[in-house]
């Protein structure tokens, strides 16, 4: 018979952080509040307590206390008419100092703009956010079609070229740990993208780049290269994506990847 006591619901970690269940040093209430903020996305900018309770698998009363506190602190704002919530300005204030720590962004901007104008693509730098990739810099020319690409936007780690290149910027132990996390914590992402993901990792030694063609958005293709560890030691990657042109994996590899590799060498 196990001597381990059952975890109290009051200390139960969010499902996305289940490895901390029962850890007395883990501040569960804080974790729930942070996970609640992550529920808000460009696709779902306004959510109510019922929406949040369903997404977080938490009692309505718990969610109500969390939203009340986050409104009081400025991290949420309440819609006067609907009674629902949206992110507050304090979230932006919290993120800006972090972006300023990445000095590579200032050095990269003119070079990224030059590459975007030369190729007609959108050029971005991304770092890992759990099992996603988040852009810390993004440049596109004014005539390009719209796609979700801006500083702070988050995309699939497994399904994007920049996510795969970011994995290649990690050491082998960290990369293997992340692949295992994808299998366990993001089974749908893994099922959808693992074949192309593993193919990219296997072919990296040959090409020095990673690609994604129509996997996340049907009319978007991209190629990316590792940027190595940038400010604060973060593994990062450099990406060039194209929307609305015929898919061409060979063109990405032979015409665009060398330009990215040259840009990466200028930044490290």
Plain-language structure description:
The structure is a single chain. The protein has 268 residues and is α+β, with helices and mostly antiparallel strands. It folds into two domains: 9-88, Arc Repressor Mutant, subunit A, CATH 1.10.10; 102-267, GAF domain (Beta-Lactamase, 2-Layer Sandwich), CATH 3.30.450.40. Helix content is 46%, strand content 18%. The chain has helices at residues 28-38, 49-56, 60-72, 89-101, 104-119, 161-169, 172-185, 187-207, 249-267; strands at residues 76-78, 85-87, 122-129, 132-139, 154-156, 210-213, 220-229, 235-243. The strands form two sheets. Strands 5-4-3-8-7-6 form a six-stranded antiparallel beta sheet. Strands 1-2 form a two-stranded antiparallel sheet. A hairpin with a 6-residue loop joins strand 1 and strand 2. The longest helix is centred in the C-terminal third of the chain and has 21 residues, at 187-207. The model is unreliable at 1-10 (pLDDT under 50).
By secondary-structure content and strand pairing, the structural class works out as alpha+beta
Query: Into which percent range does the helicity of residues fall?
Result: 40-55%
Under the CATH scheme, the architecture of the largest domain is 2-Layer Sandwich
The average pLDDT is 90
Topology-level CATH name of the largest domain: Beta-Lactamase
Question: What's the number of domains?
Answer: 2
Q: Strands of the biggest beta sheet: in what spatial order?
A: 5-4-3-8-7-6
CATH class (first level) name of the largest domain: Alpha Beta
């Amino acid at each position: 018979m196990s001597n381990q006591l059952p975890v109290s619901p009051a200390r139960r970690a969010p499902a996305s952080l289940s490895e901390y269940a029962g850890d007395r040093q883990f501040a569960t209430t804080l974790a729930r509040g942070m996970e609640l903020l992550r529920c808000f996305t460009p696709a779902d900018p306004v959510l109510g307590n019922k929406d949040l309770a369903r997404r977080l698998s938490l009692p309505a009363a718990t969610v109500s206390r969390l939203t009340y506190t986050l409104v009081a602190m400025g991290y949420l704002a309440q819609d006067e008419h609907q009674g629902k919530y949206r992110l507050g300005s304090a979230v932006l204030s919290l993120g800006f100092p972090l972006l300023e720590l990445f000095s590579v962004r200032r050095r990269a901007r003119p070079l990224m703009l030059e590459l975007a104008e030369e190729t007609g693509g959108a050029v971005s730098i991304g770092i890992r956010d759990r099992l996603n990739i988040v852009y810390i810099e993004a440049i596109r020319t004014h005539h390009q079609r719209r796609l979700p690409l801006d500083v702070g936007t988050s995309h699939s780690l497994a399904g994007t070229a920049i996510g795969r290149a970011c994995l290649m910027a990690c050491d082998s132990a960290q990369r293997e740990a992340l692949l295992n996390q994808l299998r366990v914590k993001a089974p749908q992402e893994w099922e959808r993208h693992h074949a192309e993901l593993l193919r990219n990792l296997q072919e990296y030694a040959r090409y020095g780049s990673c690609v994604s063609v129509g996997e996340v958005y049907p009319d978007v293709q991209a190629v990316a290269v590792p940027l190595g560890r940038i400010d604060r030691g973060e593994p990062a990657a450099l990406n060039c994506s194209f929307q609305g042109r015929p898919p061409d994996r060979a063109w990405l590899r032979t015409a665009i990847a060398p330009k990215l590799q040259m840009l990466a060498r200028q930044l490290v």
